[in-house]
Amino acid sequence: MSELPKTFDPAEIEQRWYAHWEATGQFRPDRPGAEPWTIVNPPPNVTGSLHIGHALDNTLQDILTRHARLKGKDALWVVGTDHAGIATQMVVERQMGALNPPQKRTDFTREQFVDKVWAWKEESGGEITQQLRRLGCSMDWANERFTMDEGFSKAVLKVFVDLHRDGLLYRDKRLVNWDPGLGTAISDLEVETREIKGSFWHLRYPLADGSGFIEVATTRPETMLADMAVAVNASDERYTALVGKQVRLPITGRLIPIITDDHADPELGSGAVKITPGHDFNDFEVGKRAGMAAGTMLNMLDAKAQVVQVSDGLIPDTFLGLTTAEARKAVVAQLKAEGFLIPHVDKDGIEHDAEPRTIQTPYGDRSDVVIEPWLTDQWYVDAATLAKPAIEAVRSGAIKLVPKTWEKTFFNWMENIQPWCVSRQLWWGHRIPAWFAEDGSVFVAMSETEAQAQAGEGVVLRQDNDVLDTWFSSALWPFATLGWDGSSSPSYPSPSGEGPGVGDASQSTTLAGLPHPNPVSGRSGSQPDLNSPGGYSPDTPEGEGLKNSLGGRYPNDVLISGFDILFFWDARMMMQGLHFMGDVPFKTLYLHGLVRAADGAKMSKSKGNVVNPLGLIDQYGADALRFFMAAMESQGRDIKMDEKRVEGYRNFATKLWNACRFAQGNGIGASKMLDAPVAALAVNKWIIAETITTVQAVDLALADLRFDGAANAVYQFVWSRFCDWYLELIKPVLGQMDAPATGADADETRAVAGWVIDQILVLLHPFMPFITEELWNAMGPRETNLIVAHWPIADARSLDPAASQEIDWLIRLIGEVRAARTELNVAPGTRMPVHVRDAGPETLARLDRQASVIARLARIDLATGDAPAGGAVQVVVDEATFVLPLAGVIDLDAERARLTKGIEAAAKERDALAGRLGNPSFVERAKPEAVEKARADHAEKAAEAERLSAALARLG
Questions:
Q1: Residue 733 · residue 741 · CB < 8 Å
Q2: Which of the residue ranges 6-10, 426-430, 717-721 would you say has the lowest mean pLDDT?
Q3: Residue of 838, 812, 830, 819 whose CA lies nearest to 886
Q4: Minimal CA–CA distance to 589: which of 387, 398, 383, 386?
Q5: SS3 829
Q6: What is the pLDDT at residue 528?
Q7: CB-based contact 945:913 (threshold 8 Å)
Q8: How many CA atoms lie within 13 A of 431 on its CB side?
Q9: What is the DSSP string of 741-769?
Q10: Distance (Å, whole) CA 420 – CA 403
Q11: Residue 238 to residue 240: CA distance in whole angstroms
């Protein structure tokens, strides 16, 4: 046993133990024949750094991984990073631009630029993986993956080629989110909607036959240069006679039809809507329903969002080359000059060109420019077809969504899913394996050689310049990380096998003389055969033969994900996994909420309310932050960041540390047994029962993925039952540090206390790995580190109901007496007599057995006979009443006056707050956080008034 220092220093402990765990291979100990258990981490961007969302997501994953490992399973937490096409290319281009002289990507060939990105990745791309280590993530670093490593890239190309072969991937002209700043299509997740002060213009379009006008309204008048129709609702009688007629557009003179479509709402504005299918997602669908082919839709912008001529050549030359903002001004000015602009009249009767409006405007989250719906040729996946098996998997329960409330959202989105655009106009990423011939023919193949064979000798081919969306590659994460590349022998390294980046663990440093749990020598190579437990003998490279394959690691056991990527990542993994593996990618999908600022607002750099998890780790330790995340993670709810709570969990760690120091000072050390020791003393039987009950509660909570329930169960047991009560109750049995007690009772108590501490450390380890590992090894010699110890067994045979009832009664009695003394301002050191009324035989026997404990902890002495007349406080526990005379202890009149004054003040504030909360104007108009605070304050004052009233009533 090594004596613990007085001060708990998280930083020193965390660095030392993480290095030891990783160096000795304990994140994936060799367990031949053990049940495989697998989870994959959502791969963070290689450019990223740890944010508070990462801290939550990875803490929850690590809790499950460490728990599975302690349960004896062959737990594998697959780790890797995403190549992050846009973000990484931007980082490298920004660095090139900062050189003297500045460089641009286009100064180099594509291959030269990609080499520069790889060089950056090798030098600077591992920051977040080091930060995950600081959080304590027990990942399989020896086999770290990257979405552009050789094996994974082969899998990506294989999936693309096979989807194309199966008719599920194709090239099409559709609208995309186009980022003019980056010059590429982007996903919805990369679009940030902002509220911008804008305008709403009302336009008058003349009918072609000269019989009148039809009024439309728009926030983007410049797009009228590419209008192709005006839509009205078929039920709108105002326009029945106009349907089928034509409008001659101002400025361009283009003739466009008046059509019917439900997109036009008779209740909104004039009920007529201008349709620009080449520049609006809703209009695109209207155009398709009206029979317009995408190839015929007018596209008035180039890749930089500048006006270009359309196919009919009707845009005047004066508009060509203008930006959208410049074109807007020019179009409005000409419409006004020609009498086609309907002025807006404000409440004072003053005319304006447009009505002021707050406009929801899409911006690129990286480029900070307005995103344009742009008509362009891209590659698409037939998501609707792939979605059907995924929908059925969730509906049948093959994939369990937690919380279940997300199912409705999932089904609604999946049943209305649109084609998935998977191409991006970048240089960094998986280049699309498609080659074009001069006549426009497309050949999709794994290599240029294969494409040339398809095209025939002498056909000149040009490879597609685009790369694949990073969501396309990450959709393969649950199986491509495990070695699947479309071949007939996918492999994942076993702990005793070889793997990328694995060194010779036999030379690793160990701590405390512990043997390396996974000694290996002579490791070499980078693509081993699969030797992991369970083995793998596929029947076919795809489909049924791969079910429960990859060494028993597919399907993965569980996926932890933020709800915000349910459709961008989780659903797409379901689609690809079911299609290529013939089975679901994971059995359970747990969706957690967001970590918000303390006031409930979403964190953002612009608001200045972002919390740096590394700063919290520096200040309070990783264990405290992890425990906060677990304790606050309640299914279906977001987490409000509360640094005071993080500090509180640091105090919890300190309390545990001091409890172990107390144990060491009283001869309590590491237990030698897994089962509970045999106990005769009621207090020891009680704490054994409390331990088993806590193990049961934690097991049930983790099985249901109720992280808060698991964390709070072990927290309450450690803080309240063990530290506050058990250690206090056993002090007389243990004697003094300089005069330790001997005998059977003392030996039993030391054995039980040591066993309970062991169970606490194991139960807490998934949540607080660093301090528990330190204490585990400090309490005495061990066969293994805690990270690979045994999870406690909840053996109900060790429960003793009679002993538990007695100690629970003792705690209630002492607690009630202490509370009464505190409420009545009785000095802590004052001893008081207590008279007992109406006590039954069992209570009298308990009082006799526990007299010394009651006298020491409640500061009361049992008195015989009836209580003297006069003021007294009465405490009722079960059938018995305990009377504590107050004469000579406190000034009864002064105490009554103090309590009465306190009741009046609390009641006044309570009633004032109730009046506020009863005012609908306050509840509806005040900020949510203000209403929530008022409710909390009201509850606090109501409880205070009730508590003081009870104290006053006790005085009689």
A1: yes
A2: 6-10
A3: 830
A4: 398
A5: coil
A6: 27
A7: no
A8: 14
A9: --SHHHHHHHHHHHHHHHHHHHHHTTTSH
A10: 26
A11: 6
Distance CA 708, CA 699 (A): 12
DSSP letters of 861-880?
EE--SPPPSS-EEEEEETTE
Distance CA 575, CA 584 (A): 8
In the numeric block, the tokens 């530290």 are attached to: 723
CA 764/CA 759 separation, integer angstroms: 8
Sign of CA dihedral 569, 570, 572, 573: positive
Number of helical H runs and strand E runs in the chain: 28, 34
Beta strand 400-402 with 184-186: parallel, antiparallel or unpaired? unpaired
User: Alpha helix (H) ranges present in 421-501?
Assistant: 448-455, 470-474, 477-480
The distance of Cα 400 from the centroid of its chain, to the nearest Å, equals 17
CA distances from 106 to 91, 114, 121, 157, 780 (A): 15, 12, 20, 26, 64
Tokens of 41: 């981490």
Residue count (the chain): 956
Instruction: Dig out the tokens for 845 from the structure.
Output: 């026997």
Instruction: State which amino acid sits at residue 903.
Output: I
The C-alpha atoms of residue 346 and residue 350 are separated, in whole angstroms, by: 5
Residue 862: CB atoms within 10 Å: 14
Q: How many CB atoms lie within 10 A of CB 283?
A: 27
Q: Which residues are paired to 872 by β-bridges?
A: 885
Q: Are 470 and 422 in contact (CB under 8 A)?
A: no
Q: Which residue has the tokens 């969990």?
A: 649
Pairing of β 191-206 and β 341-342: antiparallel
- Segment (H or E) for 790: none
pLDDT at 536: 26
Contacts of 162 (CB under 8 A, 6+ apart): 486, 542, 580
Residue among 114, 1, 69 at smallest CA distance from 779: 1
Q: What is the dihedral of CA 643, 648, 650, 653, to 10 degrees?
A: -160
Strand 639-640 and strand 595-596: the pairing is parallel
Among the listed residues 228, 258, 230, the one whose alpha carbon sits nearest the alpha carbon of residue 245: 258
Q: If you ran DSSP here, which 8-state letter would residue 507 be given?
A: G
C-beta of residue 506 within 8 angstroms of C-beta of residue 518: no
Classify the phi-psi angles of 185: left when phi > 0, otherwise alpha if psi is within -120 to 50, otherwise beta.
beta
Measure the CA–CA gap between 648 and 651, rounded to whole angstroms: 5
* Cβ-count burial 526-558 (b if 16+ within 10 Å, e if not): eebebbbbbebebeebbeeebeebbbbbbbbbb
> What distance in Å separates the CA atoms of residue 547 and residue 541, rounded to the nearest whole number?
11
C-beta neighbour count of 788 within 10 angstroms: 20
- Helix 52-70 and helix 622-632, axial crossing angle in degrees, nearest 10: 90
Name which of 662, 680, 666, 687 is nearest 849 in CA terms.
680
Q: Give the residue among 873, 750, 782, 753 at the shortest CA–CA distance from 819.
A: 873
How much is the pTM? 0.85
The mean pLDDT value for 926-954 works out to 85
- DSSP helix/strand/coil, 184: strand
Over residues 776-832, the pLDDT tens digits come to: 999 999 999 999 999 998 887 778 899 999 999 999 999 999 988 888 888 888 998
Q: Give the tens place of pLDDT for each residue, 493-531.
A: 766 554 332 333 333 333 333 333 333 222 222 332 323
Are 444 and 451 in contact by the 8 Å Cβ rule? The answer is yes
Provide DSSP, 190-238: GEEEEEEEEEEEEEEEEBTTSS-EEEEEES-GGGGGG--EEEE-TT-GG
Residue 796 — left, alpha, or beta (φ > 0 → left; ψ -120 to 50 → alpha)? alpha
* Distance from C-alpha of 668 to C-alpha of 147, rounded to nearest angstrom: 50
To 10 degrees, what angle do helices 52-70 and 707-716 make?
70
Query: Which residue's entry shows tokens 């004032």?
Result: 912
- CB 569, CB 66: distance < 8 Å: no
Side chain identity at residue 235, one-letter code: S
